[in-house]
Amino acid sequence: MMMKKLRNISALVVCLLMFQACSEDFLNKKLLGNLTQDTFFMTQDHAIQSVNAIYAKFRSWELAGLPYIGATDVISDDSDKGSTENDALYLKEIDDFLFDATNQTFSTMWTGHYQTIARANLAILNIPNIDMDESLRARLVGEAKFLRAFCYFRMVQWFGEIPIISEPLTEDEYFTQVRQPVAQVYDFIEKDLQDAIASLPEKSKYPASELGRATKGAAKGILAKLYMLEQKYPEALALCEEVISSGEYSLVSQYNTIFTQAQENGVESVFEIGAVALQAAVVGPGASPYNMVQGVRGIPNLGWGFNRPSDDLVASYEPGDPRRQATVIYVGEVLPDGVTIVQDNPDIFNERFNQKAWVPSHPGLQDNGPGNIRLLRYADVLLIAAEAANEAGNSAKALEYVNMIRKRARGNNNFILKDLTITNQAELRTAIRKERRVELAMEQLRWFDLKRWGIQNETLTKVGKTFVNNKHELFPIPQTEVDLTDGGLVQNPGY
Amino acid sequence: MKEKKRLILLVALLSALRLCAQFVVTGNVVSKSNNEPLIGATVVEYGTQTGIDRGTTTDFDGNFELEVSSANAQITISYVGFAEQVIPVNGQSTLKIVLEESGVLIDQVVVVGYGVQKKSDLTGSVATLKGEEIQKIATPNFAQAIQGKIAGVYASPTSGKPGEGAVIRIRGTGTLNNSNPLYVIDGMITYDADFLNPQDIESIEVLKDASAAAIYGSRGANGVIIITTKSGRKNQGGEITFSAFTGTQEPTRYIDLLNGSEFARAFNQLRGNNYYPDPESFGEGTDWQKEVFRTAPLYSAQLGVSGGNEAMSYSLSGNYFSQDGIMKNTSYDRVTVRLNTVFDVKPWLSFGNNAAYSITESQNGPNVVGSAYRMPPLLGVFDDAGNFTDPTFFGLATANPAADQFYKSNNFGKGSSLLGNLYGEIKFLKNFRFRSNFGYDFNKGDSRYFEPKFAVSGSQLNLNDRLSVGSGGNNNWIWEQTLNYNKDFGQHSVGVLLGYTAEERSSYNFGGSRENFPGTADELLYLSSGNDTTQMNSGGASAEALNSLLFRTNYTYASKYLMTVSMRVDKSSRFTEDNRTGYFPSLGLGWNAGMEEFIQNLDIFDRLKFKASIGVLGNQAISNRYPTAALVSNGLYAVFGPGENINQGATVISAFNTDLRWESSRQTDVGLEAGFLDGRLTTEIDWYSRNTYDIIADVPIPQYVGSAANPFVNTASVLNTGWDISLNWREAGTFTYSFGANISPVKNEVLQLAKGKTEIFSAFINGEPATRTVVGAPIGGFYGFKVEGIFQSEEEIASSPRLGNEKPGDIKYADINNDGVVDGDDRVFLGSPIPTLTYGFNFNADWKGIDITADLFGVSGNKVFNQKATARFGVYNWEARVADAWTVDNPSQSEPRVTNGGHNYRVSDRYVEDGSFVRLRNVSLGYTLPNSLTGKLGIGYLRVYVSGTNLWTSQKYSGYTPEFPNSGSTFNVGFDNGSYPIARSIQFGLSTKI
């Protein structure tokens, strides 16, 4: 009897021991050393960080690396692939228009921009629910919308109809998205930009330490460009003039200093992405690949040497235009640091490099690119204003704006780049386009300009590219996307 | 007062446990024909009375010692090839047993999950490998010894890296990702066993089917390997064992690449001119593979002592193992000390421990397999000035592998690990046994890597010398409580196991680095001497837990009819509360038909058993301990202002899935075991089907979702069906020999994909998927264009379906759907990476002390994708076949013109190769000195031997080996992206006992 009791007791003890440990606490293992979605978007700091993360993506390989240069400059008549003959053959395909839908240029642009959009979507969805300063909240959401619109604006010009992802997708939505009409994408971008204009401050309202965040002026500038695409010239002109009359911006007096570190976030900067070379093993926390991929290859070894300013571009400058020297690095040239001379690299034939992407040597070497990436300059806004004015029939205004650009370029040399006086709309159109090309050369804008003007075919054929009508106006949808959606994303014609 | 009460209670409790009387019997087992001692004979007291099987094996002198339940116990002595004897102890403490050769293969006792069972009583599929078989062939890793020995078990070397083991697959690839079996080493559950000293192994049991493995529940789906280490024997004087081997290793083969003059010729063809006017002048050029690989030594030495008295037994061993890698500047050294002890405190109470402490040291020089494959043979290791040659070759971005080996080899790792268990066992109320087992695996590793300043080329350089150190460790423990009940009721015999286990695994790591050291002398290479403004640090941690309930019951009737029912309930911290619990039941039935009179009357079978089982097992399947967590990534910095301030950025960048559930597999096994011709011929045949469903995988999702990584989802259902057939012939006598053959055909088929998905594309190469998984076909089948031939002329191109801008000499891809153009719709299934057949043969012979062992292993039916040949970011060397490239003068029908990317590098069957091979895995020749001689020398036993590993291989694949490790998802299996060659080695060794 006694024994039986004891047995029961011991059994009980054993059982207790067992189930003590079985509490759910034991099994609730938290992710260590990291926030999770459950603990994020709780504080004002989280709101700020979630928006900072969108900016960060603009310094990534996808948005500032080689494929990006390919999808903007190399594909245009402004530049050739550059580097050594067999390096990055996928860019050679881009240069020669021999690409198909598997070329990584397209998948990289697609992936990078949609990942940026996803970061913006999360911020736009969640920041409104955070208990925080109201005006900061409005500004952060405005920044996210601006950055989202910026991505869609590039994407719609590259790919045409694209899926509009405006909120984080749920699992059952992953494979079911379809391409939306271009007009709808335009509307979506305009809505985001209008919201951004309403909630973003002017550049001067930011403290110096926050310069580089999206501004009212930047949003207006991009919206003006969208209106140009839609041929809403008076609206575009009006927006540009708002930017011009805001007093926030002016032209840097010397063209060849625009891309120096001193002018980062300078008076001419409407929107740019900050980068810095902090000490680090390879890639520092603020670096971008933008300078590396375009840097001088050889001696001094500053980079990979891609994006060679083309013969056609070099020939397009008016005689004596100092902007050519400020845009192109030649062998034998003393670099802007005033000391280093570029030497001939025997592996590259007739090399040239993009001076606008040049940066002096810095910690962490080439990988650790410190140059801010200029995405919208005041000069660009002025030229859009000129173009819009001319298209709207106001040649006087057009001349006023375009001549501001020429005046700055000529500096004190009155023998070059004389003021334009043409008033014939077609002739002035040609002149403004020419001006726009040389002013903004190698700034990743040319492909979009050619597309807007509808002169891709004639221009690119002229420089020997095998452009095919009704095909090459748009990039192919990446083959992986077509495959993954089982054809749900219909390929662009011709691919 | 209180104390006293407690004491009384304790005494009462202890005395309440009624205890069985114990009796120790020792004996000697010899063969009737020659009176030679029988080594390794099994001596068992079956637990028909007590519920506890007690067993041992005879030692090198045929001696055994066994503690039995009482002086009236019956013990069963068996030995392969001899007639089993059942002997009543009748109070004798010393027995002389003479076994008669019969060839009848007798029952063994095998280790099963949480216990032991007679093999004849098993309803599940369990294969056993004895330690001697592993120790016979000198091997640095037990897994290499398994290959080809057990039907349905496939072990392939993970790499030729020193210290690394093998990837083991039991019954094919059941899941889309982690298919590694679970290891249970002396009761401690681990996920790999590479560190284990093979000399310490007593036996390895492989649990292959549901009836055997379901007791391991959520981790049993890929099979379970139970490893038992050696322990001492009671009542036996101490003995000393010593064994050692030494050997050399070298790569089994080299890849056939273009030599100097061939490369120069190909380069001229690529450029379309005579860039090298005299290609012949380059001759052989540099063979970069020979530059980076070497012949490397390996050694092992082991000293052990063991013994025991009535109350305890012990086994203490020390082992030193040292292996240099076949790639220069890689090495691995390991010291293991093991102490296994058992203490019988009281007849009803025992304690034991098995503990191994090991320390390892490794040099981890860079893996330069890829750059050795790519370097043009025109470049030498050093230039004329004696510096490492700048590898820049027409923009070539690869690195001079010899320079990497020189500059990047100050990279060392140190590790220590304590693994083992501690248990206590109480027997009470005659039929009950309670065991509490605490298993632990505490390990820690440190790394130090110093990279000096150097400059070989513009891309192969390091301008700031840097020291990086890191440290990390794991603390894993399991606490298991099990209660056994065994009782016979007449012909009925019942065994019940109940258990509860709790398990926690955690790990941590941290590291730091600094640059700009005042010198490169070893004594300066500590963080403190580096520049503190360059310092960086990092760290992290993770943890997981598992709670489980176990239940198993065995029922036998008259030893003829067998049934096993088991159930495990697992709760894992990896899943959210709703999906946390998994139930894993199994049922096994068996019929020892050989014991039926009508079968015995046939006089055909010595033994005949039929068995069948069904059950559900699980797989946690993924290495991520938090697969459902939506991780917020930080470090997404934004830079603002003229001060270039770094602003912290963070957000969720990857899609996640909180609904993730267990991956499960439904397994069915039907089998028979039979023995014929007095046990000379035995066979085991199993048919199985394994349906793995809710498979966890990170299936690619469209990029417009904007996720940086693919989320884990329960996606698909896969069916493996196959046979494990093994056949053994054994003839015992003065000349003892045996043949074994095992063969495992397996078929892999996808039954279902996730929600509405009809296909999964993966393994993207240059933007194109190289695998496509569809219902009805194997997982991750290769997918791409079919090469039809080579375009010989512009006219042929103009008149043929084509892909784009082909030129003469380019590959002509087949227009599969005959629509006049070649496009994405013309891609087809190009073969499966999964073998349809694996097989092994082994041979053993023993004649007057001379022994020979050989194991042959092969697979067939699988393909390999030679991915390394498709990745050309510069002018790399080409594989040998390019020497026959198409030119106007050499109108090849199979080799396209020399190009360096683009059309001819599209995903096609040009890169899909036959993965079949047959390999002589192990072979050994040994000689054991006769007792008469060793006796005089005062030595118990002495064997000397020579053994070889991977001495001969027949393969069609052009790479180093078709069996290379697969990283990542099972949708991407079989891609050779620069795998490490495996080593061929020859060892000499001896083992002795005093």
Helices and strands in order:
The complex is a heterodimer of chains A (495) and B (994).
Chain A: H1 2-21, H2 24-27, H3 44-57, H4 61-64, H5 66-74, E1 79-82, H6 89-96, H7 104-126, H8 134-159, H9 182-199, H10 216-229, H11 233-245, E2 269-273, H12 290-294, E3 306-309, H13 311-315, H14 322-327, E4 328-330, E5 352-354, E6 373-377, H15 378-391, H16 395-410, H17 425-439, H18 446-453, H19 456-462, H20 479-484
Antiparallel strand pairs in A: 1-3, 2-6, 4-5
Chain B: H1 2-16, E1 23-31, E2 42-45, E3 54-57, E4 63-68, E5 74-78, E6 85-88, E7 94-99, E8 109-112, E9 115-118, E10 126-130, H2 131-136, H3 142-146, E11 153-157, E12 166-170, E13 182-185, E14 188-190, E15 201-207, H4 210-213, E16 224-229, E17 236-251, H5 260-271, H6 288-292, E18 296-308, E19 312-324, E20 330-346, E21 349-364, H7 369-374, H8 401-407, E22 411-428, E23 432-451, E24 454-455, E25 461-462, E26 466-489, E27 492-515, E28 531-557, E29 561-572, E30 581-591, H9 597-602, E31 605-619, E32 632-634, E33 638-640, E34 645-647, E35 650-652, E36 663-676, E37 681-697, E38 713-731, E39 735-752, E40 759-765, E41 768-774, E42 781-784, E43 787-790, H10 794-798, E44 811-813, E45 828-829, E46 837-847, E47 850-860, E48 863-865, E49 912-914, E50 917-928, H11 931-937, E51 941-955, E52 983-993
Parallel strand pairs in B: 1-7, 13-16
Antiparallel strand pairs in B: 1-4, 2-3, 2-5, 5-6, 8-9, 10-15, 11-12, 13-14, 15-16, 17-18, 17-52, 18-19, 19-20, 20-21, 21-22, 22-23, 23-26, 24-25, 26-27, 27-28, 28-29, 29-30, 30-31, 31-36, 32-35, 33-34, 36-37, 37-38, 38-39, 39-46, 40-41, 41-42, 42-45, 43-44, 46-47, 47-50, 48-49, 50-51, 51-52
